[in-house]
Every structure is written in structure tokens, then in C-alpha cells.
Amino acid sequence: MLCLPHGLQFRTQKHSLEPQFHSFVITREDGHRSYGFSYVFYEEINNRKICSAMQTLQAMHLTELSSNQVGRSGRRGHSAGLGHDAHNTRSLPRHFKLSTHQQGAAQSYYDAAKDTLYVSKSIALICQLPYVYAACKYLRGLHRLVSTSSPGQLSIESYIHNLLYEVPVPQPGRTVCFSCPLADSVVIQRPGSIEELPLFDFSLRELFTLLGVDCLTQLFTCVLLEHQVLLCSSDYHRLMLVAESVTALLFPFSWQHVYVPILPASLQHFLDAPVPFVMGLHSCSESQLKIASEANLCYVDIDSQTIQLPEELPSFPQHAEFVGELRELLMKHTVSSGQSVRNLNERIVPHASSNMTSSCTLPGGFGQLMRRKHSWSHNSDAGMSDALQRIVAIVERTGVSLDDSGQVNGTECKLSEHEQYVEDLRFNNAVREVFLNRFVYIFSAYEHFVIQPNQDKEQWLNNRDTMQNFDKATFLSDQPEQHLPFLSRFIESQMFATLIDNKIMASWSEMEPNLRVFDRRIRLLRKRFGEALVRTPGYEPCTTIRDTELLLEKRLASVDIVVASPQEVLQTAGPQQHSGVFPLLDPVALNKEPVHRSQKRKTMQWRTGHHCHHHQNIEQHEPVDGERTADTVGLLQRVSSTGISLRQPKLRNDMSPARVAQTNWTFVETLLKDCKSKTKRMLVEKMGTEAVELGHGSGESSLEGVEENTLIASLCDLLERIWSHGLQKKQGKSALWSHLTNYQELKECDDTSKPIDPNFLTPDLSSMALETDLSPSSQRHGREGHKLPEGRSQISSSPASLPPNSEQPNLRPLPVSLTADMRNVQAMTDIKTHIGYARAWVRLSLEKKLLSRHLRTLLSDSALLRSQYKRYAFLRCEDEKEQFLYHLLTLNAVDYFCFTNTYTGTKLPYRVVIFPSRKTSAATTSANSWVAVSGTLGETSPVPIPRGALEFLFRHKNLGILTTLRIGHDNSGPSPKWMVEHVVVRNEVTGHTYKFPCGRWLGRGIDDDSTERLLVGELVPRDVDSDELVETCRTPPPRCHSPSVPRRSQDARPSLAEIQHMLGDAVNSIVKLLYHRKHDKERSTLTLLLCGETGLVYCLEQAFLTGFKSTRLFGRNLYLWDYFLRAKEQFEATLLDSDGDMTPHPSEKQILHCYCNLVNQIGSTSHTLGKDGKFQLFVCLCAREHLLSRMLTPLSLCCVTLEMYEEQSFLRSPTLLTFLRQILESLDEFDIVLENSLTQGIGGTH
């Protein structure tokens, strides 16, 4: 099944009879793999009975084929010769193809009298390790023995006997040389040093030639994310090559799912398995396979160079730089599609057609160059002039060839087969080092986020499936934002979980070999950048290629074992005559063990044991703290020359006190200098071009590509280094968090107002209240609320918290306390490690602009500081400590949202305070009221307001930066009308307070009949205290921040010039935002520019109110929405009167259709909105549909406009109308995406 995956095949001399080599893999139940190698060739059949039977089968097949085609007259294309239907007939073996093309099919029929019949055979070799080159060379030599006869030639059994009993598998770090039949000796080697990657013998040169860099990286990404991967090729060796290469490049990770590089035709039903897999399918089998467009499937046709990717496939981190490094490596090793490669089959397979419809072509240069390779020799080439053809002919007669680029290759020396194999090993090593280097940089700090169990090995193994072993939230919080789509999915994969499990198991048993090499590389990287976590702003190319290449060359240059040449084992003498047929082997000779075998086995066992013992000693004495082995001297010398290491200095006993003091003083100065540069870099990045113009960016390296999240993670690393310097005793992975918890314990003990809880460091996260100031009733509601589903909000009101004899709500300030922020962080259920808690606390303090203040409070406890740190520690150097706190204080000059934007899955408490009108009749409502809050990270469903409460608290998944708030009621009860001046929402953890001005009525029969208002929020500056905020919220807003301006007689209308100026500023602000837009989080800014104070809605409202005849003698005043409704009615009448004189132009007709459809949707879906609210929604949707500028001309020509507007208005004055249309046309160039809170669920109108 594996040696002949396509079964037994018959061919004639008219078909290709070239031998084929392919490898395969056998996976045992315990996961151990053995590798097989098959050499398939064709031998002539001399048995006349078999030939006669085959002739009879062919006749039966043709008869059955003809009868089947009688009822298929529509399928003329299959009437001559054998097509795809030939596979479904019963008489002819399914793989015996007499023809593959319609024309000339009769010439390929088998005629027993004229044709020679051949049958496929295979000789195979099973090995423990994948020595592909050696196996191919050996099997090819065995096959050549059959057709070659020379004096003194040994039998086939002699070579096989020598391989079975004399050739040992190389020990790690050793090399073995043995003889091959009718060929030069072959050398096999095995890496053994901890600096080297495991053995890999497939040709990556051929892999890049087949797929190209772009396709390979896409396929590599699919395998990393554990998608279903299906490979297709007409060559079994290519299937094995691609599958083995891609899985080998995963190092140190390993594929954990179904792995069948060559799927036999009888097992195609395995493709229906709903699990991740890597499978290879032959093209003949694939031609009948109907592959559905699976969302999770990656399909690669190797021959036709096409690939179909899964949906929403994220990019590999730093993909462009990674591909660039690989391309440079290909150029260095002269690997390109036009270059001949070491093809084990020594043939070129024609491109097969693909049955995939939605696929993208691989890099076109590969296929085109392969077909263009010999174009210089064709005189019929249309792209070559006659003169150029004559020149080429003269050059070729001299024996000099031209490559694709026209360069002379006559002087190029051709490598021997062994030299080419060694060059391929060098290239394999370089490519694998580049791939491993990416993982080393991405996961250089993974050990800090591994959650070590507090159980023994047996308990941990029993509960492993239910335990969290990796602090995913904290790890992701340290990563650049553009890498999160890939990393958030990869850390959920089985291969990543297996590596973490192996890391934990290493504390009880020997470390897994792949993990040992990976950890070794990470330690070398830290010697380059320091003991702290690695933070590199740019892309770091691989620097270890040359060191591992030297180890490879050294091993290949000195052969450890040279196996003796084979000796004849058969009793008969003289050359064997096989007549071109591979004979049956003599089992007696092959099972006969050599006389010296037992003694040799003992010798080999002694040598093996001695070598393994020596190798283990090397690993046990592996350098960790500065020791150097001979194999790593070159690497470490280059690492030490890159700059000053920030590792904590090692103090030796023979150092003098002055020397000790100088060493520590140098380290303290380095830390302080690093702190200054990092804080300055953070300020420059946050202030942007303004800081550069002020001169703060001079001399700094470019900040392009360094985002805020990476810089803050680097600041966290710096704090860990500072707190780790001069420790008396290390208490955990995070020195900062250990210091904080010790401080918290002291404060808890000093607090005599409550009993000491000895378990406060491991709180019950399901019941810990994140807010710091709630009544007992609200705390009870909060504990019960955690049992609700994740998507629902949890509410707790606190009417008892109002001051006595107070009719207005009050917003008490949050306590500014280091321990309060620690309790908030400890209550976060998605953080599992001390490193994670420390980082969350730093981010929270930085966002609240309390980092410097909190650290000063922490360091003010001198007794605690002396008990934890030695005298020379950085934290006990007073001058340096003050400068350090001063540098951190400068970060308060800018606003950070590093906690809010990082911990997106954390549940946070939000306090809502409603400030109604002071008028008694408008201060309360009998209706059932609610609020819905929206932010950059999500929105809530309507949260009911407790009856009679003006202040309440609800918990919800992190909403991000709050943008809008909807408040409304159901208009029930005897007195539902309610006048709301302001609504304030405060995040009880970060302290961010948002003010939502309203100043409008809620209720039917008053104002604009609105029972729902959309309020746009503004962030209250931190320097505004609670008393000042409450005082401003108790008074009506001077000008509403909501969709419409409140109609008060004292509000003066702006002049025409002011309206034009405001409108120009509003449109310019939106255009500037959309032009520089980077991600969806800027939708919140767009909402403010549309609906906020002096936003586009307000400016257009002022423009449309100019000259508007809103006052009526009888009845309520008219609103702008009344005008747009009347215009809609007239437009509908115009569209219906298509035969009249006023038939609109098709383009104008489309505008009228869009306008009417939009107004009708707003009227049918927004029953709770008032007329001003519908106008605001109408403007936002028109901006999204690019209708604002296009609807002005039809409106200006509408009869309703003449009735409801004065002559001097924006819709009737030609000058003002032209200005309005031109200023709004600039918005049509951009795609505007609105928040869900603005659209009311109304989709596009097209």
C-alpha cells in the first residue's frame, strides 16, 4: 500500500517506464515514526498467459465502454479512447490506462502480437531515520545490478547483507561511511550537539523550487494554526517532500494531529475526518475527488502551483521582513526556479490541471521560468529577433550555454553528486535556522508565563485537561497589536499546548530534546540583550547560521566509522545473470549472521555507551552563567560584541570591595540611563510629530513600526530589572509583584478596622467586588450577578448611598490607593501568574497617571525596603531612585489607555449617575427606563434603571473607551415625561469618567416626541474633581452635545459665515481622520466628529435651519424631519409619475430611490426616536451611503423647499447651495463605517 500506493500497474513500451523513487512514513501507536523508501520500476512480462489475459480484459473493457456510451450521445468527448469513465468500469484494472488523450487513442491500445507488456515492481528500505539521499542512491544501485553484469561483481544479497549487519545507525554527533552498489560510497551523519537542530535530509532547495517563498509561508501559517492541509501532486516524492519539510520547519513545535503524507487511493474517505490533518493525494486520485470549498481547508496543487487558503487566515508575525530574509538566503545559495535541482526522480513532471475554482496562483515566476528555461534554443520564439537568434547559435556552437537572464554559464563548475548533497545540507541548515530564529524572538519570554503546578506529577497528569498551564492574557498583552490575530489563535493550538506541557514535565523528568535546544537558543539570545525579556523594535535576522554550519562541516569532514566493503555471501561463484528481472532473494543467506557479529556488537555497545556518557556529561555541564564550550565560542564572541549586557553583575569572592562597589555602580547608572531613554521614547511616540518639532526626537532612532503596546511592555521589563537588582532573596518570578504583595500584607495587618484574612492573596475571584465603594445590598447583588451568563450585564443600585436630605445624585470620588488598585488587579480572572499581575498593575497605574505616585508610596516604607534589598540595590540609592521616579512622572503628560485596550475580556464595573432637571415635575418618571452604553470594544444591551434610583452600578465585559449612551423609557405610567440634563458613567477600575450631556425631554407629547436619546460622551479630564463635575452636571448644558440643539429662546443662531466656517472645519476633521485611519478603534473618534459638539450633524442642522419656516400659527412648530418627510412624499410621487413631463434622469432617479428608501427605513425601524433623533440618524446614514451631496440638488428643486424655506437659505440660494454641495462631496471619496449604536440596525440601501 505504501511501496506501491497506486497498486499494481501495467504499461507498454508506449508509456513512460522511468523508475520512480519516493519515501513514506510509518507512525506507530506510541507516535514513533519509521521511514520507508521505495524504488518503483517496470519489468517485462514474458508469461504469455498473462499477456493473453490482459488482451481479453482490454476487449471486455472496450465493449463495456461502448455500451455505456450508447445512452450518452451528449458526451461526445468520451466516445473515442478511455476517459475518466474508464476508472469506473469493472473489467479492466483501475490503474491500467491504455490512453490518456482522445486523439490517437487507438495507437495506445495493447496488442499482444506487437507490444511488450510491463508490470510495476518495488524494492523498499525501512530505516529508523530519514536518510533520503543515501536510501535513493542505494536502491538505485541495487536496481542497476540487475541490468549490469561484470567480472567479479558481487550478488545483490551481498550488498543487502552488508547493509543489514555491518552498517550501524550513526550515534548523535557521529558520521558513518559505507559502500553502495555500482556507485561511490555514501556518508550519513547525525547531529548530536545541543546547538544543532535534529536530522533532516529532505531537500529544501527542491521545496522552494516547487512552491516559492510566498506559498511556503502561507502553507506554513496554515499548518501552525492547525488547519486541514491537503497536498496534491502526480509525484509521490513531492508529496512526501512538502509534508516532511513543512512539519520539520515547525521546530521546536511538532504536528500533533493526523499525518498521512501519501494517502492510498483506498483510504480517500479519511479526508472526511473533522479533525486537523496533513494529507497528500496523488493527482490521479484527486481528479475524481469533489473537494468542497471548506472554510478550514488549505489545498495545495504542487504541480500546477496553485493554493487555496482558508478563510480569514492571519499573517505570520513580521511576514514581509521574514519573506525578505528568506529571499536573500535563496539568492545567496543560488536557489531559483530556473536552476536545475537535485531531483531524486531525475525528470520533469508536466503541470497538471487543477479542479479548484477559487484558488490563487503561486508566484508566477516559478512556472514561467521553468517553461522559459530552454527558450534560447528555439528559433521560432516570437520574442527573439533574427540577429539575436544568430548570436545565440554561434555561442551555443562554442559549447557555452546561456541561462534565463542571458548570462554566460560556461565557466560555472558543476558540483559532483556528493558536493551537491553537502551544499543542500548547508542550505537546509540555513533555512531551518531562519525559521527557528522567528520562534525564538516571538516566544523568548514564554517561560515567564508558564503556570507551574503546585501538585505532584501524578495529580497534574490526572487533571491536566482541566488546568490552565499558560497565562495567555498576559502573554498577549505584551505582544504588538498587529501580531495578535495570529498569536491569539496559535497559543490555542495543540502543538503549543504540548510544548508547554513538556516544559512543565521537565521539572520532574528529563527535558524533551526539541525543547532543550529551544531553551538553549533563548538563553543565548538573553546573553545578547540581557536577562530581562527581549524587546527589539525592529526585525532581527538570524545570526546563528554560520556557527551551526561549522559544526556540520566539521562532522562531514571527519568520518568516525568506515564500514568494510561487502563480501560475497552466496555459495555459488561467478557473476549473476538476471536477464533484466529483479530476482527473488535468498532468505538463508540474508538471515545468516556474520561470525564476528556478536563480538562486534559488544564493541559497538561499549563505544556507544562511552559516547553517550560523554555526551550526557557535556549536557550536564552546559554553560548557563558565562561558561563557554568550544562549539559556542564563535557565537558568544559575536554576542558579547553587540553591546553592554544588562544582566545583574556576578560578584566573585576574590573581588575587592572597591571593585564590587564600582561594578554595582555601573549597573545602577545603566538602569537609570535606560529608564530615561525609555520614558523619553514613550513620550515621543505618544506626542508624535509635535515632539519631533520641539526637538525631543533628535538623535532618536525611528519610531516607525514601534507601537505603544510594545513600548509599555518594554517599560514593564525595565521595572522588573530594577526590582530584581540587589534582592536579598528571590520570592517569585516577579520581584515587583513580590514587593507589592509584601506591602499589601503589611497594610492589611495595620488596618485594625477589619479582621485579617490570611488568604487575601488568593481571593475568591467570583465574589471579590471590583468597585471600592458600594452598599452591602449592592455587594450582595454583585456576588449573585457573577452567576449570570457572560453576555449579560449585572446591575446593583445604591439609593441608600445618597446623602441625607439630598434630591440630587452625588458622585463620590474613588480612593487613590496603591492597595485598592492591587485588589482590582487580583480580581481579574484571566490573569494566572505573578508576572501577569505585575504587568496589569503597571498598566492600570500608568493609565490612571498614578505610576510614579504609587511607586513612591511603595518605596517610602524604608523598613520593608531594607528587609528585601541589599545596600547596593538600585532601590536603595536615594539620588538615583528620585531621578527614576521623576522620569516616570513625566509620563503623566500624555494619556494612556494601555489597561483598557489590553485586557479586553475582563469584566469591569461601571457606575451610572443620572442628573435630571431640578424642576419637580421633570425630575422623576413613572416609566420603566433604561440605558445602553457603547464603547470601542463593544456595547451593552439595554440595562434597566432601578425604579427611583438615579445612581446604579452594572458589570459588563470591558467596553473600552466609551463613545455613546442611549437612554430611554417605555412611556408608561401616569407621568412618564422626564427631563434629563446629564448622564455620567464612570469605570470603577480605571477611574475614567464620561459625561453625556442631554438637556432634552423623554416622553410623548413634549419636545420632539422622543422616548429615546442618543448621547455622545466626552472624557472628563482627571484634574476635574467630583464636586466640580457634579456641579456642572446639575445645570442644563449651555449647548446640547446630542443630535439636536435644544430650542431655547436665549440660544442665538450662528450667522451664515459662522455656519460655513463650522461646516468646513467639521468636514475637514472627518476627512483628515479617514485619510489617516489605521484600525476600527477610530470609529469612536468618527462618532464624535459626526454627532458631537460642532460635529457634522450639528453643523448641517444649523445650515438647514437657516431660513427654515418652522413657526406655525396653529399647532406645534415644525422640525427639520417634517421637511424631509414631505420631500420624500413628493419624490415618491415623481417616481410614480414616470410618464409625465417631470420624468427624472436615470442617475437622478437612483438618487431619489435611495433617498425614499432611507427615509422609509428610518420611519419604520426607529419608533422610539424623536424627530431630531431621526434627523441625526438620517445625516449619519446619508454620509455612509454617499448621499449627502447628491441629494441637495433634487431637494433644491423640490416644491416643498419653496414652501418651507426663505429665499436666503442654503437650499434656495445658488451660492450657498454650491458651497454646501462642494464641501460635502469630499466625503464621497471615503468608505464610512459607523458604530452599531448609530445605525439602529439599518443596513445599506443599495
UniProtKB/TrEMBL annotation:
CDD domains linked: PLAT_RAB6IP1 (cd01757), RUN1_DENND5 (cd17677), RUN2_DENND5 (cd17678)
Transmembrane regions: none
Source organism phylogeny: Eukaryota, Metazoa, Ecdysozoa, Arthropoda, Hexapoda
Biased composition (Polar residues): 793-809
Keyword Metal-binding belongs to the record: no
SUPFAM superfamilies tied to this protein: Lipase/lipooxygenase domain (PLAT/LH2 domain), RUN domain-like
Family in the record: Belongs to the RAB6IP1 family.
Name this protein carries in UniProt: DENN domain-containing protein 5B
